[in-house]
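### Sample
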Amino acid sequence: MFSMLLISSMTFLIALVVMTISTILAKKTILDREKNSPYECGFDPKGSGRIPFSLRFFLIAVIFLIFDVEVTLLLPIASAFNLSNLFTWFLTSLIFLFILLLGLYYEWSQGALDWS
């Protein structure tokens, strides 16, 4: 227990010394207003951050993320084909795909996927 306390204290002390030395030796730059202001790809960072955006774009992005995760869940199904019997593999894959299609139908019926 004492050795852990000693090692933790030494680690903290070494980190503190290194940070102090780097702060002392760091080159002080002249404060320049333009260099210290955040760069926001040409947008004014001082303006309002509450610019409205399309809710449709947001819903499509969320659906893309959800189905992107499902693709990562579908990939191991192909590799599990050799590790299980055919009936169990087929039934599990069919149920999983049915749940995905049910979710897609639900999103479509709610109008989130209205492409018109």
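The first helix runs from residue 2 to 25. This sample (NADH-ubiquinone oxidoreductase chain 3) is used throughout the tutorial notebook.
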